[in-house]
Amino acid sequence: MGKIIVAGIGPGSKENITPAVLEAVREADVIVGYKYYFQFVEPFVKDGCECIDTGMKHERERAEQAFQLAEQGKTVVVISSGDAGIYGMTPLIYEMQRERSSDVVVESLPGISAFQKAASLLGAPVGHDFCVISLSDLMTPWEVIERRIKAAAVGDFVTAVYNPKSNGRYWQLYRLQEIFLQERAANTPVGYVRQAGRDEQEMTVTTLGEFDPEAVDMFTVVLIGNSQSYQWNGKMITPRGYYYLPPKLGGDRGLNRRTSDIDNAFCSDPHPPNLGGLGQSIMMESFRTIEGELKRKDYPLDHKWALLHAIHTTADFDMENLLHTDDEAVATLYNKVKNGELTTIITDVTMVTSGIRKGALQRLGIEAKCYLSDPRVATMATEKGITRTQAGIRLAVEEHPDALFAFGNAPTALMELCDLIRKGKAHPAGIIAAPVGFVHVRESKHMVKPFKDIPKIIVEGRKGGSNLAATLCNAILTFDDAAQLKPGRDL
Length: 491
Description:
- This protein has 491 residues and is of the alpha/beta class.
- The protein has helices spanning 19-27, 38-41, 59-70, 90-100, 114-122, 142-154, 172-183, 251-259, 277-293, 301-314, 319-322, 329-338, 350-355, 358-364, 375-384, 388-399, 411-422, 441-448, 466-477, and strands spanning 3-8, 30-34, 50-54, 75-80, 105-109, 123-124, 130-134, 158-162, 189-194, 202-207, 220-224, 230-232, 235-237, 323-325, 344-347, 367-370, 404-407, 430-433, 456-459.
- The strands form four sheets. Strands 14-19-18-17-15-16 form a six-stranded mixed beta sheet, sandwiched between helices. Strands 3-2-4-1-5 form a five-stranded parallel beta sheet, with helices on both faces. Strands 7-8-11-9-10 form a five-stranded mixed beta sheet, with helices on both faces.
């Protein structure tokens, strides 16, 4: 009894054929395959070897011929491009062996798949979890293919696309792009390679939003990056995390220590970005989860940005009912920061100041201040018979009347600011109203609302807190990353 060796010959050049496959081709009594592929192995075929070539879509006939010849005692090599186990002949050969109850020995030799070759040419796009999807619906119903596309998009897999188009399949790739744009940012890197590893080879790196399905054909492999992928120096890179991973995390304790410092921020940079390592990965997964569980999907971007931050910090989806933002408040305040009009953030308590990202403050040239530790505060509070936080706000308004004021603890401090605004002494660039508690908390938030010309972010009701006030500040400072929904900045 002979044997059948199913061999992947790689994408199309002798340099990409493995030594094991070359040895099998040299020893074969018969080689069976699609006629187009024989050109790649012909130089290695021994004299007297019978070559049986067939046209496309004759896979079953090829397999039957291979078994008939092997059952005559011959060594038969069945060739497939790429890896024979990936959309190739290997599954069919094993199925037929079972169907025939054949004693023929079957071996499978791996080859370099087209997506691997394409990936190597594009840079390092499959550095993390990935999947491969074929858009050919000859043997798989489109409904099944679309479910798999959606799963890949939602799961944030780097995705390789085989059989993206043909003469009869012109719309499927457009649909795939549409589905991915529902889950991925428009600037997600996309690379595609035509005739990978062959003389006609062509490569392109673009983005998901700019990708043109008309630019590819059936000889093209498309690779879509995940939410961490980026372009650099003409290449497409998906980090695994090694570069930014701390040398020792210290087991679970190290993980908890590292992630306890994470609240809210995102990453966007045309240069190789600071990817934030482990912390960024955890944040990205958290933000994707939150976004997927929101009751509404049509929030304006800047409100959604603040809402994602608020829920991430509190794990409280009631924020969807409680968080109020004036129209374009986050965008307006960010633009003031960007244009140099807003340079100071005043907080009611030091815990809010501590929660504002130091990297963001430094990057943008912003100062965050709390006056509670100022020695003048205690004196003023005693003399005036007011709380220390009220005194701190009075001093802050004297020195920074046009700051962004963020409240996460003291309703009396927020009420003090409202009084100073009405008296014309304070002209805040914006107000974050998130004091927490049971006494005067709701009232203080109602007092802010009449100031229509001041951009406001308000956590309605009794809920709030220093962590909320701080993370809403962070949402403002990183609003230029909102369109990407890509956590990681200033970690």
